[in-house]
Amino acid sequence: MYLEELFGLNGKVAVVTGGSRGIGQVVSVGLAKAGAEVVIVARSNADETIRLVEEAGGKAYFVRCDVTDEAQVNKTVAGIIARSGKIDILFNNAGTCYHKKAIVLEGEELGGLNDGEATLEEWNSVLNINLTGEYLMAVAVARTMIEKKIKGSIINMASMSGTIVNVPQCQAAYNASKAGVIHMTKSLAIEWADYGIRVNSLSPGYVRTPMSQPPFVHQELLDAWDPMFPLHRMAKPEELMPAVLYLASPAAGYTTGSDIIVDGGYCCV
Ligand SMILES: NC(=O)c1ccc[n+]([C@@H]2O[C@H](COP(=O)([O-])OP(=O)(O)OC[C@H]3O[C@@H](n4cnc5c(N)ncnc54)[C@H](O)[C@@H]3O)[C@@H](O)[C@H]2O)c1
């Protein structure tokens, strides 16, 4: 009963972006298990996530949306309000990453750690998805919270890469985008504090998902990371769920503008 009072999400509507796989999929199931109706916003279909939510006894539906497209974002949020009546929680999670150097010299050996030199187009696409996409979703959802006087919770996906520069891969665009997410979060938390909307970010270390596994990551890079984990392994996506549940729930009523790092000690070393 006490735990339900602190962490229960019965009657809440939670939107999860990038919920068709990886962390977003696991968090969709976790939020549904805590009682929320979950709306999965993703570019590709989310049949598997919906099946997992339903197997767990929860309720979910899917809306197709590219979070970098303002018109699609606004249409998506309006559609959710029409169907579910309100949004209480946004897990702003969709993201991407490249391992590319800013400068590759002629003949330079990259040893499987990086995939060449980043183009301006690639830089822009990482910033667009990771930072602008989260901003567009946060603004569209917060507008509905303000209109409906919902004291909601927005959880922006950052990364330990917003605080440290993890090596040996090069990912200036990713690191800059996640540092931007952390400070955007603090800025929006202050801007929307008067409405009772809480805005926080989550900064995981390495998490075992498609983004951190072959073919996206070369075996040479996995081998280089291996000795660097203080807990001797990557996180399982399930291990982020308690932090998400805390930030989403009444338990975090006095937590806003915070960045919660769940990195197995990586940033301490
Ligand atoms: N895996 C890690 O080690 C790790 C560590 C720290 C932070 N993160 C962050 O966690 C989030 C989820 O990552 P993941 O590991 O589950 O990766 P993932 O690649 O499995 O999932 C990313 C999801 O975002 C979606 N997406 C990408 N661009 C989109 C767009 N324009 N519109 C809508 N959806 C889009 C993808 O389709 C996918 O469903 C990302 O923001 C990532 O930066 C991941």
Structure at a glance:
This protein has 269 residues and is an alpha/beta fold. The protein is built from 8 helices and 7 strands, in the order αβαβαβαβαβαβααβ. The chain has one domain (2-268): NAD(P)-binding Rossmann-like Domain (Rossmann fold, 3-Layer(aba) Sandwich), CATH 3.40.50.
Walk me through the structure.
The chain has 269 residues and is an alpha/beta fold. It has one domain (2-268): Rossmann fold, CATH 3.40.50. 39% of the residues lie in helices and 14% in strands. It has helices spanning 2-7, 22-33, 47-55, 70-84, 120-147, 172-191, 219-225, 241-248; strands spanning 13-17, 37-42, 59-64, 89-92, 153-157, 198-204, 259-262. Strands 3-2-1-4-5-6-7 form a seven-stranded parallel sheet, sandwiched between helices. Strand 5, helix 6 and strand 6 form a beta-alpha-beta unit. It is globular. The model has no long low-confidence stretch (mean pLDDT 97). The protein binds nicotinamide-adenine-dinucleotide (NAD). The site of nicotinamide-adenine-dinucleotide has 29 residues, from helix 2 and helix 5.
